[in-house]
Amino acid sequence: MDTATPPDSARLTFRDATESDAPALVTLIESAYRGDSSRAGWTTEADILQGQRTDEQGVREVLDAPAGRLLAVERGGELVACCQLEHRRDAAYFGMFAVRPGLQGGGLGKLIIAEAERTARESWGVGEMHMTVISLREDLIAWYERRGYRRTGQLTPFPYGDERFGVPQRDDLAFELLVKNIEGIDVGEGA
Predict the structure, then answer these.
(1) Which run of H or E residues covers position 169?
(2) What's the pTM?
């Protein structure tokens, strides 16, 4: 089991999520992105998307993916964050990243993404981490850029009409691919 020390000196524990974690993971992810509870943090998408961000079936699909992992991050035995890692040829995909809204802005995200990069590099020997972010999310993209990710300009349309991903409140949503070279970086380098 891997641990890192967040700024408040409490220990974080990273572990592979299990089927029994699915309900708690859905609650965490929804709280970080949708509805009024998400407004306590800065990662909310509540103004551009209504409805759900994910559901138990979506979480279970990530858990069951043979080329992936869903990391549960705990502090004091309590789920505080999660992220998805998926092996895609020479790269890893980083997604389903959520930090409990009341804990956002305190440095946990930096530690978690650095651990995810280390895990992907050591588990699969990949040289790049990929992620997609809604292109309108300039504040979130800027945060990832400060972690070493670069915008590619490569856009994928938002899946309008598929309410599993939410109900768009705008007609100009798209995902942009962000990429980071993670070969030979130190665990704390992205922090």
Answers:
(1) none
(2) 0.86
